[in-house]
Amino acid sequence: MSKLSVYSRNALYTWGGYGANLIVLMLMSPFVVRCLGDRAYGVWTMLMGLAGYLGLAELGVRVSTGRFINYHLGRGDKEAFNRVIVSSLAFYLVVAVAVLVITGLLGWLGPALLEGCSPWLVHWLSPRMVQAARDMMPAARKVLPLLGVNIALSFFAATFGQILQAGDRFDLLTLADLGTLAVRAGLTVLVLAAGGGFVALAAVNALAAAVGLVLRLAAARWRGPAFVVSMRYLCRKTLGEVMRFGGWSFFSNTANLLINYTDTIVIGLLLGPECVTAYAIGLLLAEHGRRLLFESMNIISPDIMKAAGRKDQAAMHRLMISGTRAAVALALPLLAGFLIFGGEFIHLWMGPNRQTSARVLSILTLSLFGGMASRPAIAALSGLGCVRFLAAETIAEGLANLALSVLLVQAVHWGVEGVAIGTVIPMILINNLLVPAVACRRMGLGVGRYFAATAARWLPAAAVTVGLAFLIRAVLPGGSWVAFAAKVAILLAAYMPLALGVVLGRQERAGVLAAAGRLAWPHRRALPLEEA
């Protein structure tokens, strides 16, 4: 199969998985919020955020494992490839036990810690948050150990997912994750319909994580790059290399947790758990937009890292430019829709009186327009071993996010919207501008050339797409799902020539048309990548 065919297949399955997740999100989120209520849903969101910090226990080995898997495959060194996998799995076994012990202790000691800290908490934090914590602590004692199980299993599942990505089997990875999604969604409906609370949700997540691990392992064994799990590949030197690289990734992960989870915790502590729900609804959609960008770019990220392992600068330049253009072409209509149609969608989806959530979505979407360039740049820097810079810039972004969010809530009194603005400003300045510029310099690609080949195309296209969406919203009536679907269809139809004619270059346009031709005529001879 030609490389273009592989990219087309991976893109098709990635988008299919994304669409399935989006449909489940649309159907499940209103149901879960109604079943739990704004207060309990806000506490659940905060517990998930707090548990996410326990993911730091892997010390960055997850990121370094993915890097070294692709690096050694690119060099054709299967022995080193197996040593990375086995050494990482052995490390995860130790870490998983530690996470289970920590979450068990937190659940057991939680009530005593809360009562001991109550005078200080009442003085500094939202009274509604303190009261909610007291009311829900008995349930939280059971939730934390279950969330620990979920986190521990995710370490192992990530390794097998990275093996599938390195083998360009995004199709199997997507199918495994869809099976996990089906289990999680089906059981969530059953337990909440039966009157269960977030203890039952935590149990469902733990069970789904176990199913996901089994499915990813089976898929990697079946069609991923051949690997051997044996004690003879357990290598102290390899583990040391992975952990040294991962040490800097640990700092990046810490900062990423500040970026991804601190917002909801700041809102809950300073404004109350009900405000967490208002923020989380807008954040859910923005995160799906960000995930779309990342998953679209993940299709080529392994090849960028392999090219770095071979020291093939020409391939890195080509992949970074073409990959950015393709990601932009896919994401622009979605982001323009979030920005202009987001309020109407949230009203139809979650019901009335969600204006705050709509404003949060609009603010967070602004940062995603510039985020197209960050993912291939991060893959290139990781492949080149520039992990210290990645750690430093992520820490700077995370700290700036935390400081600005607290400042805009406490001093300026901008509420939930202030937290969103505090997230967006450092993301645009550091992640969307600085990181691509540094990546270009490190790989010998002129910054001006890169931005002329990408941003000079997508910025005008973004302006036109947003303008089209605004015009469609102004002209066509709303108020129903049928009217909303009509607006989306018109925007997509108007955007297609813009994507083909402006956003994509000649090579990418030829590739898209060739892929579309193969879908229409599947028995037609596939062109190799160079011909396409």
Present the secondary structure layout:
Layout: H1 3-52, H2 61-75, H3 78-124, H4 127-166, H5 170-193, H6 198-223, H7 236-271, H8 273-298, H9 301-310, H10 313-350, H11 355-369, H12 374-383, H13 387-410, H14 415-442, H15 447-453, H16 455-475, H17 481-503, H18 506-520
Describe the structure.
The chain has 532 residues and is mostly helical. Helix 1 packs antiparallel against helix 4 and helix 11 runs parallel beside helix 14. It is globular.
Please sum up the structure shown.
The protein is mostly helical and 532 residues long. It has helices at 3-52, 61-75, 78-124, 127-166, 170-193, 198-223, 236-271, 273-298, 301-310, 313-350, 355-369, 374-383, 387-410, 415-442, 447-453, 455-475, 481-503, 506-520.
Strand content: under 5%
**Kindly, what is the distance between the CA atoms of the first and last residues, rounded to a whole number of angstroms?**
13 Å
- Specify the overall morphology: globular
Radius of gyration: 23 Å
Give the helix level as a range of percent.
over 70%
- Judged by helices, strands and strand pairing, the structural class is mainly alpha
Largest sheet data: none
SSE ordering: HHHHHHHHHHHHHHHHHH
Q: What is the count of structural domains?
A: 1
User: Mean of residue pLDDT?
Assistant: 78
**What count of helical segments does DSSP give?**
18
Low-pLDDT residue intervals, each spanning 5 or more residues: 525-532
Q: How many β-strands, per DSSP? A: 0
